[in-house]
Amino acid sequence: MTAVAVGATASTRSPRGLRGLPWTVLRLHRSALIVWAAFVLGCVGYLVWLTEVTAKSAHTTLAACPRSEACGLGSAYTYSTGMGWISTFFYYSFWAVAAWAGGSLIGRELESGTAGLAWTQDVTPTRWLAVKLAVPALLIVLGGAVFVPVHRWAWSAHRDLMGDTWFFSDAFATRGPAVVAYGLCALAVGTLAALLLGRSLPALGVAVATMIVLNQFIARHREDLWPTVSDAKPSTDLWPTRDGTYHSPSQFWPMHLVETGILLTITTLATTTAFWLLRRRTA
Predict the structure, then answer these.
(1) Residue 176 maps to a domain
(2) What is the 3-state secondary structure (H, E, C) of 241-260?
(3) What is residue 194's predicted lDDT score, i.e. its pLDDT?
(4) What dihedral do alpha carbons 28, 31, 32, 38 form, nearest 10°?
C-alpha cells in the first residue's frame, strides 16, 4: 500500500480536514507534550515543596541557632538555591521549545514529506501551519499560566531566606508573562528556521542559536528598557546599572512588560514571515 493510500485510509477513519488536525498534532507529538506537562507540574510541585517544607524547616533551624552561630545558613541556602534552579530551568526552557519546533514539529515533517502528504488531503498549507502552531502555543500559554502564579507566590513567601535578586535574568522573566513570551518566540523562530532550511537538524541548530543570541542581547540591554532612578540611596534591593544609576523594584512591571512586548513583536514578525514563506512556496 502506498503512502498516499495509507494517508487516505487514515483520513476516512478519523475526523477529516481541519477538525481532525489538532488531534493528529497531539497524537504525533504526544511524547513531547507529555514531557512538557511533566516538566511544568514538576516545577510547580517542587516550588510548593520548597515553600511549605524546606522553608519552614529552615526557619525552625534558624530559630534554634544561638545568635552567635550561623548553624542555619545551610538550610536557608538549600531553599534559595532550589528557588534559583527552578527559575533557571523554566526560564531557559525556550531552548527546548525552539529545538523541538525546528527539528520535530515542522522540520521533520517538511524533510520527510509528511507535510506534503497532509496538504493533499482536506487541509491547506496555511491551515496546516496554523494548527501546528496553535496547539503547542496554547500549551505553552497554559504552562505559563500555571507556573507563573505559583512562582510569584513562592518567591514572595520567604524573602528573608533569599537575597534581593529580582533583577537576575531568570528571576526577572519567570515572575511574569515574559517567560511565556520567550516560549512563544522560540516556537515562531523554530518554525521559521524549519521553513527556511527544510531540514530538521540544521533548523534545530539555527533556531536554538538564534534564541540564545536574542536572549543574550535582551539581557544585556534590559537595564535600558526603562528610565533609571538617579537620586535613590544605594541598597541591596536596587539594581545598579552601567552608568551608576539604579532601577528600583517598583520598576519591575514596566520593564517586564516592555520586554514582553518586544518578544511578542518578534514572535509576530517571525510567524507572519513563516506564513508568507509557506504560501509563496506552495502557491
Answers:
(1) yes
(2) CCCCCEECHHHHHHHHHHHH
(3) 94
(4) 140
